Amino acid sequence: MKRTILITGGAGFIGSHVVKRFVRKYSSYLIVNGDKLTYAGNLENLTDIEKEKNYKFEKTDIIEKQAVLDLFEKYDFDAVIHLAAESHVDRSITDPDAFVFTNIIGTVNLLNASLNKWKNDFERKLFYHISTDEVYGSLGKEGQFTEKTSYDPKSPYSASKASSDHMVRAYSHTFGLPAIISNCSNNYGPNQFPEKLIPLAINNIKNNKPIPVYGKGENIRDWIYVEDHASAIDLIFHGGKIGETYNIGGNNEWKNLDLILLLCRIMDKKLNRAAGTSEKLITYVKDRPGHDLRYAIDSSKLQTELGWSPIPEFAQGLEKTVDWYLANTKWLERIISGDYSKYYDKMYSGR
Ligand code: NAD
Ligand code: DAU
User: Fold this and answer.
1) What is the Cα–Cα distance from 186 to 115, expressed in whole angstroms?
2) Measured on CA atoms in the order 103, 105, 110, 115, is the torsion positive or negative?
3) Which atom, in ligand 2's list, is nearest to the CA of 161?
4) Least confident span in 30-39, 65-74, 304-313
5) 29, 55, 157, 325: which one is catalytic?
6) Which of 10, 149, 161, 348 could be joined to 15 by an S-S link, Cβ 3.0–4.6 Å?
7) 8 CB less than 6 Å from ligand 2?
8) Å from CA of 89 to ligand 2 middle
C-alpha cells in the first residue's frame, strides 16, 4: 500500500530510529522527515538511509505556519507522526519560551495544516502525536500511570507537552481529526544527545570527568530501549484505534544512583579499568528545581490490545548502548565540537 507520511523531528534521537525503521520496513511508503535541525537534530543519525528512494528530508521549522502549510502543499500526506519538540527538562527551566513555541504552537500549526488538507475526507488519515509520561506528573512510592491518570504536569517541558496533547484531543473531538496519542517513559539507546543522563554519564566516565547526580540520586525513572519505543510506534500507527491513547513503558524502574552504579560497572569492564574506578567520579550536585520524584508506566493496554512487549533486559540494553557510544566516538566528538551541524550544508546546500 502506498502512503506518504510526514515524520517531524526525524533527525532527533527517537525520531531517527522511527524514520530508519519505517524507511527500511515499508518500501512502498514515502517517508518525509520534517525537521528544523535545532541543536538536537543531527542528520548524521540517518546516513544509513539518506539515499533511499522512499526517504526525503525537508528542513522545516514547525513554528512557521506558512512553512508547514507549504510542506502540506508540496506533499500529499495521509499521515503525520509528530515527534518534533524541545525535549530536555533542564533547558525548559532556563528557557521555557522555546518549549511554548515549538511544543504548543508548532503542534497547532501541524494540526491546522492536517485539518485543512483532510477535512473533506478523513478516511485513512492519521495524526499520531508522540508524547511523554511526564504529563501525568510525579508519583509517590506506589502506583503507575495508566491512560486514565489525570494530567498534572510540573515542569515547563511537561506543561508544554500536556498542552499539545490537549490540543490534539480538542481537534479530534471538535473537528473529527483522526488522532492517536502515545505517552512514553524515559528512552535510552544509540544516538541520544549527550545532555540526557545516560549518554552524559557514558561520555563523562569515558573522559574521567565528574558524573553529576542531582540531589541524592533518589529519583526514579522507568527506562525503555529506544528501539522498543520505535516498535510500539510502528504497532500503534498501524493497529491503534483512532481517538485512543496508549501508554508505553519499559516496566523497568531504576533509582538514578543505582542506574549510575550499574553503568559504572559496565564502563569499568568495557574500558578495562579496575572495578570501582568509575564510581569515584560520582558527584552530587544541586537538585533540579521541581524535580519529579518517580515515573512508572502501566503499558498493559498496549500489550493486551496490540501484543507489544519490550525486548532487551536493562543490563543488556545498557551494555548495547555503551558499546554503541564507545564504537561511535566520532559521532560524539562531532556533537561536542558542534561539527555535526555542518552536515546539512555539506549534503543539502543548494536545494
Ligand atoms: P530530541 O530532542 O532528541 O529531538 C527533537 C527533534 O525535533 C530534533 O531533531 C529537533 O531538530 C527537532 N525540532 C525541535 N524543534 C523543532 C521545530 N521547531 N521544528 C521542527 N523540528 C524541530 O527529542 P527525542 O528525545 O527524540 O524526543 C522526541 C519526541 O518524543 C518528543 O516529542 C518528546 O517529547 C517525546 N518523548 C521523548 C522521550 C525521551 O525519553 N527522550 C520519552 C517520551 C516522549
Ligand atoms: O519520562 C520521559 C522523559 O524522559 C522525556 O519526555 C524527556 O524528553 C526526556 O528528556 C526524559 O526526561 P528526564 O528529565 O527524566 O531525563 P534526563 O535524562 O534529563 O534525567 C533523568 C534523571 O536523571 C532525572 O531524574 C534527572 C537526573 N539527572 C539528569 C542529568 C542530565 C541527573 O541526576 N544528572 C544529570 O546530569
Assistant:
1) 31
2) positive
3) 6
4) 304-313
5) 157
6) 10
7) no
8) 7
Place of cell 483532510: 118
Catalytic residue among 133, 147, 222, 227: 133
Ligand 1: centre distance to CA 131 (Å): 10
pLDDT in tens, 103-125: 999 999 999 999 999 999 999 99
**3-189+224-252+294-313 under CATH 3.40.50.720, yes or no:** yes
Q: Catalytic: 133?
A: yes
DSSP 3-state assignment of 45?
A: helix
Ligand 1 centroid, distance to 291 Cα (angstroms): 20
pTM exceeds 0.90, yes or no = yes
* pLDDT value at 213 more than 60: yes
Domain layout of the chain by residue ranges: 3-189+224-252+294-313
Residue 347 has pLDDT above 70, yes or no: yes
Name 184's bridge partners.
Answer: 132, 248
d(CA 63, CA 100): 10
Amino acid at 26: Y
Q: What is the reported pLDDT for 351?
A: 55
Given strand 220-225, what is the order of strands in its sheet? 186-188, 220-225, 253-255
Beta strands in 271-321 (DSSP E): 282-285
Single-letter amino acid code for the residue at 103 = N
Record the cell numbers describing residue 230, joined without a space: 520505535
Cell numbers for 303: 500489550
Per-residue pLDDT band for 346 (boundaries 50, 70, 90) equals confident
Active site residue 157: yes
Closest ligand 1 atom to the C-alpha of 84?
7
Q: What is the dihedral of CA 321, 327, 331, 332, to 10 degrees?
A: 70
DSSP 220-281: EEEEEEHHHHHHHHHHHHHHPPTT-EEEE--S-EEEHHHHHHHHHHHHHHHTTPPTTTGGGG
- CB crowding 55-94: b at 16 or more within 10 Å, else e: bbbbbbbbbebebbeebbeebebbbbbbbbbbbbbebbee
